[in-house]
Design goal:
The chain has 185 residues and is mainly α. It contains 8 helices and no strands. It is 79% helix and 0% strand. The termini are far apart.
Length: 185
């Protein structure tokens, strides 16, 4: 009887450890996603300044500026799911890079101290977002692996640990940016 109680206690302890590991990994995913969300907010907060400073000089890229403004407004909605936030962030990246490259065609913009400072800030945030995405994807991979591997899959299924999506780069961002095409929009 004593051996049965010891075996049951060991199985229970292993179950608790697996459960706690799953919770820890899920929370790590949430924490890193919150970091990405904060960085995206910083990026979205810089966009009105960028559009305002460039509106007068970049009359030919009006469509590009409108697209960025529209996506920013969409991203600032409160009730978005993490998947929707990721999709909007991905969709915004390409026109934002297009604006940054288009500045090269406007010497008066390149000479403007405020625009140079703003572009530097956006570049820094883009790099931080890229680093946070890598950390998030690693955390999601660890979590999803733990969720799917035996014996933790038994506990994950029992307590409804849902899989998490990776922050993937859309196919269009894997291609080189066609500036002429961007400027036509």
């Amino acid at each position: 009887m004593m051996q049965f109680l010891i075996a049951a206690a060991i199985v229970l302890l292993i179950g608790v450890l697996i459960y706690n590991t799953l919770v820890s990994r899920r929370n790590q995913c949430d924490n890193i996603f919150a970091t990405i969300d904060a960085l995206l907010r910083k990026r979205y907060n810089l966009i009105p300044n960028l559009v305002t400073l460039m509106k007068e000089s970049m009359k030919y890229e009006k469509g590009l500026l409108e697209k960025v403004t529209e996506l920013r407004a969409k991203a600032m909605q409160q009730d978005l799911t993490p998947e929707q936030k990721m999709a909007i962030a991905d969709e915004l990246t390409q026109p934002l890079h297009g604006i940054m490259v288009a500045v090269e065609n406007y010497p008066e913009l390149k000479a403007n101290e405020n625009i140079v400072q703003l572009m530097r800030s956006i570049n820094e945030i883009e790099e931080q977002i890229a680093a946070a995405r890598r950390a998030y994807n690693q955390a999601v991979t660890d979590y999803n692996n733990a969720r799917e591997m035996f014996p933790s899959s038994l506990i994950a299924n029992r307590f409804s640990f849902e899989p998490r999506p990776l922050f993937e780069i859309p196919e269009t961002e894997r291609e080189n940016i066609d500036i002429k095409e961007l400027l036509k929009r």
